[in-house]
Design goal:
By secondary structure, this protein is an alpha+beta fold. Among the domains are: 27-69, no CATH class; 94-171, Arc Repressor Mutant, subunit A, CATH 1.10.10.1540. The protein is built from 5 helices and 6 strands. It has helices spanning 34-54, 64-67, 84-110, 125-132, 139-148, and strands at residues 2-3, 9-10, 112-114, 120-124, 152-153, 168-171. Strands 3-4-6-5 form a 4-stranded antiparallel sheet. A two-stranded antiparallel ribbon has the order 1-2. Helix 3 packs across helix 4 and helix 3 packs across helix 5 (139-148). The longest helix is centred in the middle third of the chain and has 27 residues, at 84-110. The termini are far apart.
Length: 173
Amino acid sequence: MGTNHQGAPTMQTETDVPPPAPLPDDSTVCVVSVKGLKENWQRWSDERQEYQKHNPFSQDARPAATAGPQRGQDGYGRPLQGSMTEQRGKDAHTHIGREVQELCEVIRSIGEARGRDGAVIAVEFGKLFEHYVTISNKVVGILLRARKQGLVHFEGEMLWQGQDDRVVITLLQ
């Protein structure tokens, strides 16, 4: 029912009523009842709480089973056994090991025999850098790793291109 311009009541017909607004194009069913709204809210709340249990940035306490070892325990600072992180670490370790071996092969091939019996092979950093940089751009990092493993020796803590070109790198094995 409505009113006309003189204020008298009038009857509305079906054509005067606007059509209902279209529902949003969503995969969830929209329930209009109070009970349906409550159920939808509870479902969302439960899903959110479950998500927050696995969110490492959440303030919610995670279960002890997924927390991993604590400081001072065996395995602390290591990825969980069988995890993808552990596998990526193993793959990286293998890859770097191959690069260290390849660097030693390059030193053997371009280095010069030194010493009394010629058993010591050495090369200057500049020559090694120019040759090895075409193989890998990580030559300094690989050299540091090889020194840590006791495969090569050189003076200084770090090698810089240009500045340390005359530093001799000795192959120990």
